[in-house]
Write a structure and sequence with these properties.
This protein is mainly alpha-helical. It is built from 18 helices and 6 strands. Helix content is 50%, strand content 6%.
């Protein structure tokens, strides 16, 4: 049971209803912390079991004889009061009190707390009396945080290394950088969570800039942790050529993605390619893949291209006009298609009526009409 300190008197957390620190909750726990039996009523959901043809559920009873109750809380207010009581003071000139210099290793003064101290902090005498074993842990120091980074299972540092690997960037962190990260995390005074705060502050801009700049390696040292922007600026010097290569590679990946999603082997026309590259240069925060998102997510466009490939045996290059006005471009494409052959077989062979002969004046080009309708419906959505 966490947050036992919520009812602590003199603490910034204050009391809160429904948490162990509340007096009413403490009184409820008094009944179950002793050896007793408790009835547990099974939840019946929306429809009682009796209406489903079964017997009404009987309450289960469990004994708390072998149940171990563990309570935890920070008790920051009590810790501060015990510190003021235990740390000796030196009297300076003019009556000013000067605290004796402490060790760099943090410690908790809750080890000195007695039952009376917890009662003064807001716990009931009967409640704290039923908790005979009390353990106080010291805050994590710089050395502890270093070990968390280097030795813990699922280290957040390893997670960042895998994240950068996914971007194609090899991240290495030096030993002096680990010490600096742990030092800054200790200042945060949020325990191991401070490590995530410092790492995110250090690597945030690198995650956005390096993949688009063609940088394949990042070594983090103490200077990088102190001033990430200076290291990033140094890495980005003279990489415009690499950026251009990355943009062109993104364009090739767009063609590959269309093929993977729709089995359409399309190519981007030079006009569209130059437009995408120019936009990416003018707005570095925008990628070629992001600019092509309307084409990748357009299911109606894929249906129209399949109809074109079926009629002509080839696929047109994707021009700039397609990105600027997809509906007009696809309508023009479909309008320029040759008429369907009279003996064209139905691919699905599902027993539907065959397409009318193209030689008839009253015939309707059903595949063309269906493809156009599907595209327009998708465009409206």
């Amino acid at each position: 049971m966490d947050k036992l300190c919520r009812g602590e008197q003199g603490s910034a957390s204050g009391g809160s209803q429904g948490v162990p620190g509340n007096r009413g909750v403490q009184s409820t726990f008094l009944k179950v912390m002793e050896e007793t039996e408790i009835s547990l009523q099974k939840s019946q959901g929306m429809i009682p079991q009796i209406f489903l043809g079964g017997e009404p559920s009987q309450p289960q009873r469990i004994s708390t004889k072998h149940v171990l109750f563990i309570f935890s809380g920070a008790f920051t207010g009590l810790d501060e009061r015990l510190k003021q009581k235990c740390v000796p003071k030196n009297m300076g000139f003019l009556g000013e009190e000067t605290e004796v210099a402490e060790s760099d290793i943090p410690m908790s003064y809750l080890k000195q707390a007695t039952s009376a101290d917890f009662v003064d902090a807001g716990l009931e005498t009967e409640f704290i009396g039923r908790i005979p074993v009390r353990v106080a842990v010291d805050p994590l120091g710089t050395r502890d945080l270093e070990l968390v980074l280097l030795q813990s299972e699922g280290s957040v540092l390893r997670q960042y290394e895998r994240d950068f690997e996914g971007y194609g960037v090899a991240l290495t962190v030096g030993r002096e950088a680990v010490s600096k990260i742990a030092e800054q995390a200790a200042v945060e005074k949020t325990g191991a969570r401070g490590l995530v705060t410092v790492l995110e502050r250090t690597f945030r801009e690198f995650k956005y800039e390096l993949p688009c700049a063609g940088v394949s390696a990042l070594h983090c040292d103490a200077a990088t942790v102190e001033d990430p922007s200076a290291t990033l600026a140094r890495l980005l010097e003279g990489v415009e050529g690499a950026r251009e290569s990355v943009r062109r590679a993104d364009a090739v990946r767009v063609e590959a993605e269309i093929f993977a999603q729709h089995a359409l082997n399309v190519t981007l026309a030079p006009s569209l390619m130059e437009f995408l590259l120019a936009e990416a240069r003018a707005h570095p925060e925008r990628s070629v893949r992001g600019l092509c998102a309307p084409l990748l997510d357009e299911s109606g466009l894929a249906a129209a291209l399949r109809t074109i490939e079926k009629r002509t045996g080839t696929l047109p290059e994707l021009p700039l006009e397609l990105l600027l006005d997809r509906e007009a471009t696809v309508t023009r494409w479909l309008g320029e298609l040759p008429e369907a052959a009279e003996d064209e077989d139905d691919e699905d062979d599902d027993g539907e009526e065959p397409v009318a002969s193209a030689s008839s004046d009253e015939s309707v080009d059903e595949p063309l009409t269906d493809a156009l309708r599907e595209f327009l419906d998708a465009a409206v959505k």
